Amino acid sequence: MLFLIPLSCAAQNMMNDKHNAIDIVLVHGAFADGSSWSQVIALLQQKGYRVTAVQNPLSSLADDVSATRRVIDRQPHEVLLVGHSWGGAVITAAGNASKVRGLVYLSALAPDSGQSVAQMLQRLHAPMSGMQPDADGLIWLDDAAAYAQVMAGDVSPEQVRHLAAVQQPIAAAAFGEPLVHAAWRDKPSWYLITEGDQALPTAVQRKLATLLGARTRQLISSHMSLVSHPQVVADFIEQAAQAIQAQDPSP
């Protein structure tokens, strides 16, 4: 049994070599955990990529960035970093790691250098509202009906109940933490814009994608496109990976 782990890792690494050694790291948002990527992970693995989902504590921006950097450091190859929703703020900071080659934003927040998420939303005339922290300073979305309305209007009721059951609350203070330098200032980015999104207005997503100079795709979807449209999301991520590979001068 002890020999199964290294043999499995070796086989996966051999498979990854077919894809020019680009590893994919997925960063979930608020009110979710790493399992929200399950369908996307399976599709990307079928394409031959090494894929790892970060488990963000959502206790602070700094904590989430640290968790993401630990995963980046463990990758044997260069990294394509993917962030959904709040995860966009995380990859904007963690993406400064030298191993990161590109950034993919899925309906995601993308603060500028020296800016917090709250400041970014205020500047875009979309201030946060309707999120009341509890006595511990945490914001929850653990009611299935509310989850469907805000996050997952095109997801089956069964899946919504599961998402609400595993959702992780986020510390309200995290939205006020500024990041030092925005990685998208230096690295190529891609942005999947979801039309009809009830969590992050589509107009705000378009403004962010323009600010980033990102290559974009538009999709009619709820905020949880990674659950309701996993094939589209996986294909979009692969397109970014292929674009990075095409720029790689190595044989």
From TrEMBL:
Gene3D superfamilies membership: alpha/beta hydrolase
InterPro entries for the chain: AB_hydrolase_1 (IPR000073), AB_hydrolase_fold (IPR029058), Sec-Metab_Biosynth_Hydrolase (IPR052897)
Pfam families given in the database record: Abhydrolase_6
One MF annotation (Gene Ontology) recorded for this entry: acyltransferase activity
Residue span(s) of domain AB hydrolase-1: 24-235
Alphabetized UniProt keyword annotations: Acyltransferase, Hydrolase, Transferase
Family annotation (PANTHER family): AB HYDROLASE-1 DOMAIN-CONTAINING PROTEIN-RELATED, ESTERASE_LIPASE_THIOESTERASE DOMAIN-CONTAINING PROTEIN
The name this protein goes by in its record: Hydrolase/acyltransferase protein
Organism: Herbaspirillum seropedicae (strain SmR1)
